[in-house]
Specification:
four-stranded antiparallel sheet; Chitinase A, domain 3; PpiC domain-containing protein; chaperone; membrane; alpha+beta; Triger factor/SurA peptide-binding fold; 18 helices
Length: 565
């Protein structure tokens, strides 16, 4: 199963909800073909329809629209039950391996176009496959689930339906007769390219509003930044050491480190800790081994200096070969005097960055510059959490290329300068920008519709003047070529209509409509293999045959509804 067909896959809300075995009639919303639907399952599905309506329209539904949503919910539940019943009947399911194989070899179009998998403006298949297999950097669990529970089972069901229920003995004989024959055809070719189309601004605007989701943009920021560290002075470091000693004494009393931090009244230090878990003792850095040497469980080492303050190691427990310990950071909080010089430097870097860009300015000052990946506003990751609120306020009003005022992070003990490398903040492409595209789409649709109307009028009365191209084909078969392409569909549909004494078919090839008429038919007595019969039959099914089949099953379904809109 390497290629997905182009049929329209039905999207169902809550397709595989759990069907309740309710016995209390007050908890039953209704039933489909004898399967009871609980109120909980019904309302879960209804809420999904309601939420999508709000997302698409930006408002709550009217009374009439709520009634429509209620009916749509029951239709989708009915489809879900029908599919479940058929999956059980034919023992249909999809394995994880099948899902990965399908998604690896037939990548969904929306994935290929997604900015999340674009690198230098092109789709990065390696990045996509990594996400597909590991959910990193993008989580594709929902996509895999959709294919396992929805897409692949429907593909399998289609194949089974064709083989077991649609290809009757009568149809097989007809298909065999078509394949074995040869015929003379007349082709009437109607092209819409010469039709004049006029569109009003109101029509264009209405189409834009109706199809607004097609023009939704992914909102994101791509940032660049550099940092200027603030070095605490001796007084600030001394205050931090006093805090470290206080924490050490509290740990001797048996107080948990989380409680110590929560109740710490000294605001001159920033305290945090890391639970390192069990580590192999012999693989620990020598300074940590030395700090933990001889400590009893629960106690910690003396404060050791690091660039932002003091660090301590608390032994939690040790075994023969492993050590469980915490790393405790007591960071000195610089006061005004310590902040001034780094802030001045940050302002100077910003001033230069306004002229030559932040990356080059950082290079001039000999400091590192970091470029972030594209991130949505909701999932923006910044170097320090304590500046995120301020940064977001700046980003909301900033434009691409803006340099943001230096922000101080106590968490990093540094001034940070941010550059908005790229910003996509518009929710939708504006009408003015997509108007030529909409005009092209509407014109194509209008020409297609008018061309179809011309063909249908001509079929009713062929004496009506019509602009078409005429071609005569003699002694052709289903394997013949016409204009360098297989004649398969045209031949099959023309001969089928001829055998059924029906009107000639209308076959759409791109924008062109072809009406083939059989003028001479010569059946042959040739045995055709069952596999070839199935292949030709499947190739000539209407594109939406599965949806049509589903609609027929919905009409036949026995549905009992206890809920009200």
């Amino acid at each position: 199963m390497n290629k997905l067909p182009t049929f329209i896959v039905i999207t169902l809300l809550g397709l595989f909800f759990l069907v309740s075995c309710a016995t209390n009639s007050s908890s039953v919303a209704g039933s489909v073909n004898g399967t009871e639907i609980s109120l909980e399952d019904f309302f879960n599905s209804y809420r999904g329809h309601y939420a999508i309506f709000g997302y698409q329209t930006g408002r709550t539904p009217t009374k009439e629209e709520k009634e429509k949503l209620h009916n749509e919910t029951w239709r989708d539940i009915t489809k879900a039950i029908i599919l479940q019943d058929y999956y059980k009947k034919y023992n249909i399911s999809a394995s994880v391996a099948e899902v990965l194989d399908t998604l690896s070899n037939s990548i969904p179009e929306h994935i290929i176009k997604s900015p999340r998998f674009q690198v230098n403006g092109k789709f990065d298949k390696k990045l996509y496959l990594q996400s597909l297999m590991t959910d990193q950097p993008e989580n594709l669990a929902a996509l895999r689930k959709h294919y396992q529970e929805n897409v692949i089972p429907i593909l399998k069901l289609q194949k089974v339906l064709i083989e077991e229920e649609m290809l009757s003995s009568k149809i097989r004989k007809q298909v065999e007769q078509i394949i074995a024959s040869n015929a003379d055809l007349e082709l009437y070719i109607f092209a819409p390219s010469q039709l004049e189309i006029s569109l009003s601004d109101a029509e264009i605007s209405a189409w834009y509003q109706t199809n607004l989701e097609q023009f939704r943009l992914w909102q994101f920021y791509r940032l660049g930044y550099c940092s200027i560290p603030v070095i605490p002075d001796s007084t600030e470091l001394s205050d931090a050491k006093n805090t470290a000693e206080f924490i050490r004494n509290e740990l001797v009393r048996g107080i948990d480190i989380k409680d110590i931090i929560a109740n710490l009244e000294n605001k001159n230090s920033l305290v945090s800790f890391i639970d390192n878990g069990y580590q192999k003792t012999e693989e620990l850095p020598w300074e940590i081994q030395n700090a933990l040497l001889g400590l009893e469980n629960g106690l910690c080492s003396e404060p050791l200096p690091y660039e932002k303050g003091w660090i301590m190691y608390q032994k939690i427990q040790s075994t023969k070969t492993l050590t469980l310990y915490n790393t405790i950071f007591v960071q000195a909080l610089p006061k005004t005097a310590s902040l001034l010089a780094p802030e001045t430097q940050a302002q100077q870097i910003m001033k230069l960055a306004l002229n030559i860009g932040l990356q080059q300015a950082a290079d001039e000052f000999g400091i590192s510059y970091t470029l972030t990946p594209a991130m949505s506003p909701d999932s923006l990751i910044v170097p320090a959490n304590d500046i995120k609120g301020k940064l977001m306020k700046y980003l909301e009003i900033a434009n691409s290329g803006d340099i943001i005022e230096p922000l101080y992070s106590a968490e990093l003990s540094a001034w940070l300068i941010f550059e908005v490398v790229e910003k996509q903040s518009k929710e939708y492409l504006p009408l003015e920008e997509v108007k030529p595209q909409i005009v092209q789409i509407l014109s194509k649709e209008r020409r297609k519709d008018q061309n179809k109307q011309i063909v249908e009028r001509w079929l009713i009365n062929q004496n009506i003047p019509a602009n078409y191209q005429w071609e005569k084909l003699e002694q052709v078969t289903i394997d013949s070529l016409w204009q360098g392409k297989p004649l398969t569909t045209i031949y099959y549909q023309a001969v089928k209509a001829y055998l059924e004494k029906a009107n000639p078919p209308q076959i759409t090839e791109g924008e062109v409509i072809i009406v083939p008429k059989v003028t001479a038919f010569r059946p042959q007595k040739t045995k055709i293999s069952p596999e070839r019969i199935k292949t030709i039959y499947t190739q000539n099914l209407p594109e939406d045959w599965f949806n049509s089949w589903m609609e027929e099953q919905v009409k036949k379904a026995k549905v009992v509804i206890n809920t009200k809109p």
